[in-house]
Design a protein that fits this description.
This protein is an alpha/beta fold and 205 residues long. It is built from 7 helices and 6 strands, in the order H-E-H-E-H-E-E-H-H-E-H-E-H. It has one domain: Rossmann fold, CATH 3.40.50.1950. Helix 2 crosses helix 7 and helix 4 packs across helix 5.
Length: 205
């Protein structure tokens, strides 16, 4: 683990944000760049967390942060192999409040849009869509081809939330960690966690 990753994942937890009761999320990590977003989301989400990481997600996690999948065990209740189509979340009989694919590669988004469920990551997305559960596709790709835009449009029409990993700057971030937290804070709000720091939030008091 390199010094940046060690500092990032071992930093003392901030005061835990309040949450609605019994939130359960499934997080799917693909081989797109941006593993740091998934790590921070898992670290900050206060409910039940389950993780599925693809082969290339594990490679990117190690390449970008010097971490192994096992290093994330401290943040999750359980992990399932992407190849395990008999895992609990391959069935709609095991509910979850949200499924966040973070980061989501354009290939994964395209397969989901085409109705393909050949891995646990894509099969769980099919479950989320058919059961009308919250599906957030956090895309980390730029520029986007027309084919990719059409796939994302199709997912949006089916009820998925397309979330480009585009960090907000209105909070005047000064470090990479602050940029990452600003982005994962928006994701946390989408799944029902109350996180302070909204735009001109003080004006609402």
């Amino acid at each position: 683990m390199d010094d940046f990753a060690r500092t990032f994942v071992s930093e003392a937890e901030a005061e835990a944000p309040s949450r609605r009761p019994a939130l359960r999320v499934l997080v799917g990590m693909t081989g797109a760049s941006g593993a740091i977003y998934a790590v921070d989301f898992l670290r900050r989400f206060p409910g039940e967390k389950f993780l599925v990481a693809s082969k290339w997600a594990r490679a990117v996690l190690h390449s970008e942060l010097g971490l192994r999948e096992e290093d994330l065990d401290r943040y999750v209740k359980a992990r399932f192999p992407d190849s395990d189509l008999a895992a609990p979340f391959s069935s709609g009989s095991n509910p979850f409040d949200a499924y966040v694919i973070l980061p989501c590669s354009s290939s994964t988004a395209a397969k989901i849009a085409a109705g393909i469920g050949d891995t646990l990551i894509t099969r769980a997305a099919q479950v989320a869509l058919k059961e009308r559960r919250r599906l957030i596709v956090a895309v980390r790709e730029t520029p986007l081809s027309t084919i990719q835009l059409e796939a994302l449009t199709k997912l949006s029409r089916e009820g998925a939330i397309v979330f480009p990993l585009s960090p907000p700057w209105y909070g005047k971030p000064e470090t990479i960690e602050e940029l990452v937290r600003a982005t994962t804070g928006k994701l946390l709000r989408l799944v029902g966690v109350e996180v302070p720091g909204g735009w001109r939030e003080d004006d609402l008091e």
